[in-house]
From TrEMBL:
GO terms for biological process: histidyl-tRNA aminoacylation. It is found in: Cytoplasm. GO terms for cellular component: cytoplasm. This is Histidine--tRNA ligase. HAMAP family: His_tRNA_synth (MF_00127). Its main location: cytoplasm.
Length: 421
């Protein structure tokens, strides 16, 4: 027996209906908020993520599935969606499109070589939205509201929205300087990764899991103290819009995101449900005004977020929420005898063409076992056809909700069922 690779999962019938349900919910909400779908490849040139996500991030340094193909190209299974969307935006010159901002959504598998645990997979599915081409704080609020509304629409209640600003270029440089000055005296006490981070990208030090409890972390300079007036203003506007939309949030100046492209607004949504597990982040996002330019496009503002379906399902389970997905057939055909079996196939085809969900037995089971199967499939009606019925050109239709039974001629079956479902 060959098992699936570590950090991946099979989603079997019974469970897959939940995934389809969530996908439908997401797409419906995208339509309400006017986001349109973009589909990009599962793999990209490695450079897209090196330049997009950032060379010093854990994702690029440690977590990418990178391979050389037979034509000697360096390719990577996408670890996230934003860099790919920005790459496509540049390639197809979407910045020149009349419709601005471009409001896009995507859903599909992402790949990260992480240590698997509950809620942390090597292949996981993200739903994400990206709005490119607008630097209006109203759209930051729209994206955040979208995320919260999606969770609320499936019944989640124990949510916490954490908000921060990472400021503009100038704020970030001042903060960077302050971080270097702060951590350099204790450099030797930090982990080897942080010693490198301190030189390449000191903000990353704040995100270190190993050095989280080091004394110097508590007193580290906060971005909020280095914000330019413009950045402060922008953040205030975002909050105003969130208030207007009735979105509750807490500001956490220590929130830094794990990807390099962010500036200004950054946010994460956590589950506060009891027993959710160690990893409580359900989704994250923020503004990435330099990303399109980094990928050779024009200077373009952007904001977006992504969630994973795996963690969404965990949050639903933790809050005891059952999704309204039930597997049910309109009809099940119980056929007895060779001739009846043949006729049953024909009837089944015509019912299906009339949008009636129907199935029958394919294992030559006895009548009782066929009825059992009909029950298991939650069939609303059972059509019974044997030699006697064949001769008369009728079927017996049993209404499973009340046990009543009627004879219906072949050509009246579709109407009979349609009137009753
Ligand atoms: P991220 O924070 O790396 O951001 O991932 C977003 C979400 O994907 C996380 O909050 C989490 O729910 C889920 N996720 C990440 N890694 C895993 C994993 N190994 N297993 C299960 N779920 C996972 C991004 O990916 C950005 N592209 C979000 C964004 C869009 N920012 C702007 N636009």
């Amino acid at each position: 027996m060959i098992n699936l690779p570590r950090g991946t999962q099979d989603i079997l019938p019974g469970e897959s209906e939940k995934w389809q349900y969530l996908e439908r919910k997401f797409i419906e909400l995208c339509s309400l908020y006017n986001y349109q779908e973009i589909r990009t490849p599962i793999f990209e040139h490695t450079e897209v993520f090196q330049r997009g996500v950032g060379d010093t991030t854990d994702i690029v340094q440690k977590e990418m599935y990178t391979f050389t193909d037979r034509g000697d190209r360096q390719l990577t299974l996408r670890p996230e969606g934003t860099a790919s969307v920005a790459r496509a935006y540049v390639q197809h010159k979407l910045h020149g499109h009349v419709k601005q901002p471009q409001k896009l959504f995507y859903h599909g598998p992402m790949f990260r070589y992480e240590r698997p645990q509950a809620g942390r997979m090597r292949q996981f599915v993200q739903f994400g939205v990206e709005a490119l081409g607008s630097a209006d704080p109203a759209i930051d609020a729209e994206v955040i509201d979208f995320a919260m509304t999606l969770y609320q629409s499936v019944g989640l209640k124990s949510l916490r929205l954490v908000l921060n600003t990472l400021g503009d270029q100038q704020s970030r440089e001042a903060h960077r300087e302050a971080l270097i000055n702060h951590f350099t005296p204790v450099k030797e006490e930090l982990c080897s990764d942080c010693q490198v981070r301190l030189e390449k990208n000191p903000l990353r030090v704040l995100d270190c899991k190993k050095d989280r409890n080091h004394e110097s972390m508590k007193t580290a300079p906060k971005i909020l103290d280095y914000l330019t007036e413009d950045s402060k203003d922008y953040f205030e506007q975002v909050k105003k819009y969130l208030d207007e939309l009735g979105v509750e949030y807490v500001v956490d100046p220590n929130l830094v995101r794990g990807l390099d492209y962010y500036n200004h607004t950054a946010f994460e949504i956590m589950s506060e449900a009891e027993g959710f597990g160690a990893i409580t982040t359900l989704s994250g996002g923020g503004r990435y005004n330099g990303l399109v330019e980094e990928l050779d496009g024009p200077d373009t503002p952007g904001i977006g977020f992504a969630l994973s379906v795996e963690r969404l399902l965990m949050a639903l389970a933790a809050e005891g929420i059952e999704l309204p997905v039930e597997h049910a057939l309109d009809c099940y055909i119980v056929a007895l005898g060779e001739e009846a079996e043949l006729k049953a196939s024909g009837i089944m085809k015509s019912l299906r063409m009339a949008d009636i969900k129907v199935d029958k037995d394919f294992l030559g089971k006895k009548m009782k076992a066929q009825f059992k199967a009909a029950d298991r499939e939650n069939a609303k009606f059972v059509l019974i056809i044997g030699d006697h019925e064949l001769e008369q050109g009728i079927v017996e239709i049993k209404d499973m909700s009340n046990g009543t039974q009627e004879q219906v001629s072949f050509d009246a079956i579709i109407n009979y069922i349609k009137e009753r479902i």
